[in-house]
Structures are given as structure tokens and as C-alpha cells.
Design brief:
mainly beta, rod-shaped, 39% strand
Length: 119
């Protein structure tokens, strides 16, 4: 099952090629930090068929990806469209980039106050 994985803003997007997969067989599962993708593609019955070429694989397909602690597994979403499974994997709130404010005091004011106290 060939796939792409990329990051956009605050989530990852995984796309996996599953052409001809039986939509009801597609399973996306997260357990113990591992994302598992599974699907099945059935071939037509061999009864009365004289194969001239049989190159498309049938059977079960499975792929596992280890997720880090920075993922929000409860909000992972998936959809299957035109033979492509797309899984959206959001970052956990604690792993998202955030701006840190820098506090500062007026240094000139501190110097003036210190001189008054010594004089």
C-alpha cells in the first residue's frame, strides 16, 4: 500500500493508495501509539473465467505507522474516495507551536530608583 505523509499547519495528512479495495473492509485503528491501516481487495470468482492476464493483487493489505506523543489520537479522521484513503492526524494541543511572550522592565527606571535610595 503506497502512501504519502506530510504536515500541514497543526496536523499530519496520510494518503494511501487502495484502488479497488472493498470500502467496507477498510479499517483504521489506533492502539498503543500505533496507527494501523487495513483493507481487502477481492478478485472475481475463478468460476468460468479464463485468465489472460492476472496482475492486480487481491487479498489483505496492512500498514502500520508508529505515532509519537505529539498526536491527538482521539481526533484522527479518515475518508476513502476514488481509491485513496486519506487520514488526518491532528497534533495534540501541547505539541502545537505557540508564541512565548517576553517580559521586560524599564531598565532606566530601575537605575533612577536605585540612585534615589542611596542618596
Amino acid at each position: 500500500m503506497p502512501m504519502d505523509l506530510y504536515k500541514v499547519d497543526d496536523h499530519y495528512v496520510l494518503t494511501a493508495d487502495l484502488p479497488g479495495a472493498d470500502p467496507g473492509s477498510i479499517d483504521v485503528n489506533v492502539e498503543n501509539g500505533v496507527l494501523t491501516l487495513a483493507a481487502q481487495r477481492t478478485s472475481p470468482s475463478d468460476e468460468g473465467v479464463q485468465w489472460l492476464a492476472n496482475e492486480r493483487q487481491a487479498g489483505s493489505f496492512r500498514r502500520q505507522i508508529t505515532l509519537g506523543d505529539s498526536i491527538d489520537p482521539g481526533n484522527i479522521g479518515a475518508h476513502y474516495d476514488n481509491g485513496v484513503l486519506t487520514v488526518t492526524i491532528p497534533l495534540a494541543a501541547h505539541a502545537r507551536p505557540h508564541k512565548v511572550s517576553v517580559e521586560h522592565r524599564d531598565r532606566q527606571r530601575e537605575i533612577s530608583t536605585a540612585r534615589k535610595d542611596t542618596g
